[in-house]
Design brief:
- The complex is a heterodimer of chains A (about 260) and B (about 300).
- With about 260 residues, chain A is α/β, with parallel strands linked by helices.
- Chain A has helices at about 55-65, 105-115, 115-120, 125-140, 155-170, 185-200, 235-240, 255-260, and strands at about 20-25, 30-40, 45-50, 70-75, 90-95, 175, 205-210, 220-225, 230-235.
- In chain A, β8 and β9 (about 230-235) form a beta hairpin.
- The longest helix of chain A is centred in the last third of the chain and has 18 residues, at about 185-200.
- Chain B contains eleven helices and no strands.
- The chains are: A alpha/beta (about 260), B mainly alpha (about 300).
- The interface of A and B includes residues 88, 94, 101 and 109 of A.
């Protein structure tokens, strides 16, 4: 495993970073999330996997405070995510954000927008904030492109812009929705390096949601398999003991696990 | 605003008042329009203009200064429109139509009641910048100051919501509140601009300068500044042209902005096609004119 546990500053937070306790959510009669339990601790690099329609995005919306669970509770740093005081602690990279192709905005402008979570949305950015923005662009290899228009970049580069935007707030918990879908190999490598750096250097918690793990399959230290409920929650090694190897079974992984029960 | 000595065509007081009011509108309308265009809400300006018409008519009926009644109706209407837009997603378009056509119908009825379907209402519908008085100019300057101050404090957050609303919500940015504020600022802009270019053309000053600027700008800030430059330049060129040739100033100002937008589009289109005769439309091709940008 690439992550160097405890290499950076000693952990301050003791309680879990993220808790989902008996979360259920349905559209009409169909229950998309059925009594989901989940707990993430500081410095964990966890991945939530599951096929399309398994409830990953719905769970994520509940965890981010964008949707209210119909049953159960969600706690982010011990607080209701909708009433979280220090918003910067929670970073979010939505699934391939829709970006107007005619939006005239530079890479630096978009990344700097992510710093507002830290400064307060009405405040101007100071020198320290500018440094954080520069550091965020550097960590995903975008510094040479800082003045470029975002709409001129490739899909993988645009995705890195949004990851840098989340980095700019220096979050303690970073949640990414399908960040590597349709992304080129170079961007995947830079993406993986930047996440492992975030976990190792800042002891941040990274929660990655994907229907395939691809680039980060060897870096994560926890896998949660979801298909409306949690089918598996453990280390990749434990998952391998069940006879499943990540990245091989991908789509049929939940089916496989269901078959084991 | 009197006693100033300016060269022709701004040597007369009425032209100086027109210039001040026009410059404020030329700068502020694109500032709001820049966000509206990126949020795909360009037509909001037109819609709220319809509501302001009802406000003007109410003022004429009640014998109150129509600018105040227009401001009240437009601001209340803008909050209502934003409320409908977010709450009644399924029939958003029709809900807006209800508001807008209801507004103009109410305006027609009220004007009929007041018995003033004449020149009085036309100065608001088509603009009458050459008849603005010092009192009107102060209202315009006040509205302009409010708009600049609001954008100064909320511009970064508004830009964040333009980029992505969901992650902005997670970051604690009050997305709904900012959208409502933008809607109210649109109403304020319309009221400020209705004597300058008229209610029928107000939205043009919000959209056309932005359309021209976004074709060449490299940054969002550069696009806003470029749009302000195009907007104010359109006012100056429009006023000069109108005075020289005896044209209707409101329409001339908007025509200058339209010609600028069209001209920039054509020039860029030609420049992009020259290197390769590909089949890509100019809107799809990456821009290649950074030299002409207004980046910071």
């Amino acid at each position: 495993m690439r992550r160097v546990s405890g290499a950076a500053a000693a952990p301050v937070t003791t309680g879990p970073v993220l808790v989902a306790d008996g979360v259920s959510f349905g559209y009409g009669r169909d229950l998309v999330l059925d009594d989901v339990h989940l707990e993430l601790r500081r410095g964990e690099f966890a991945a939530l996997v599951g096929p399309n329609g398994s409830g990953k995005s719905t769970l994520l919306r509940c965890l981010m405070g964008l949707s209210e669970p119909q049953a159960g509770t969600v706690r982010v740093f011990g607080e209701d995510p909708r009433e979280l005081r220090d918003r910067w602690r929670l970073g979010y990279v939505p699934q391939r954000p829709f970006l107007d192709r005619d939006l005239p905005a530079s890479v630096e402008e978009v990344v700097a927008a992510g710093r507002l979570a830290r400064t307060g949305w009405w405040r101007r950015l100071h020198a320290a904030d500018r440094r954080a923005v520069t550091h965020a662009m550097e960590s995903v290899g975008l510094l040479p492109l800082r003045g470029r228009r975002v709409r001129e970049l490739s899909g993988g580069q645009q995705q890195r812009v949004f990851i840098a935007k989340a980095f700019a707030g220096e979050p303690e918990l970073l949640v990414l929705d399908e960040p590597v879908a349709g992304v080129d190999a170079e961007s995947q490598r830079l993406f993986r390096d930047s996440l492992t750096h975030l976990v190792a250097e800042h002891r941040a918690t990274v929660f990655l949601v994907s229907h395939e793990l691809g680039a980060v399959a060897h870096d994560i230290d926890r896998v949660i398999v979801l298909k409306n409920r949690v089918l598996f929650d453990g280390t990749p090694a434990e998952l391998t003991e069940t006879g499943v190897s990540l990245g091989v079974h991908r789509e049929d992984l939940p089916l496989w696990l269901e078959g084991l029960r | 605003m009197t006693g100033l000595t300016l060269p022709f065509p701004f040597d007369r007081e009425y032209m100086q008042l027109a210039l001040v009011a026009g410059l404020v509108v030329g700068a502020c309308a694109p500032l709001i329009g820049g966000f509206l265009v990126q949020k795909r809400m360009s037509l909001l300006g037109d819609g709220i203009g319809h509501l302001a018409f009802a406000g003007v008519a109410a003022g004429l009926l009640l014998g109150v200064y129509p600018v105040w009644t227009a401001l009240i109706v437009a601001v209340i209407g803008s909050v209502g429109v934003e409320w409908l837009r977010t709450r009644a997603r399924t029939s958003g378009d029709l809900a807006l139509a209800l508001f807008f056509y209801g507004g103009i119908a109410a305006g027609v009825v009220l004007t009929g009641l007041a018995g003033s379907l004449d020149a009085g209402i036309f100065t608001y519908l088509f603009g009458s910048i050459l008849t603005v008085r010092p009192g009107d100019v102060w209202v315009v300057v006040g509205c302009g100051a409010a708009i600049v101050a609001a954008i100064w404090f909320t511009g970064r957050a508004l830009f964040a919501t333009v980029v992505d609303e969901e992650s902005s919500r997670v970051a604690g940015i009050p997305v709904d509140g900012l959208n409502t504020m933008l809607s109210v600022l649109t109403a304020v802009t319309i009221v400020a601009a209705m004597r300058v270019v008229g209610l029928l053309l107000v939205a043009a000053m919000m959209v056309l300068p932005v359309g021209a600027s976004r074709l060449v700008a490299r940054t969002f800030r550069g696009m806003l500044l470029g749009a302000v430059v195009v907007g104010t330049a359109s006012v100056v060129v429009g006023l000069v042209t109108a005075r020289l040739w005896g044209l209707a100033p409101g329409g001339t100002i908007v025509l200058v902005a339209a010609v600028t937008f069209g001209g920039v589009s054509v020039v860029l289109n030609i420049r992009r096609r020259r290197p390769a005769a590909d089949a890509i439309g100019w809107r799809d091709a990456p821009a290649t004119a950074p030299e002409g940008s207004h980046g910071h």
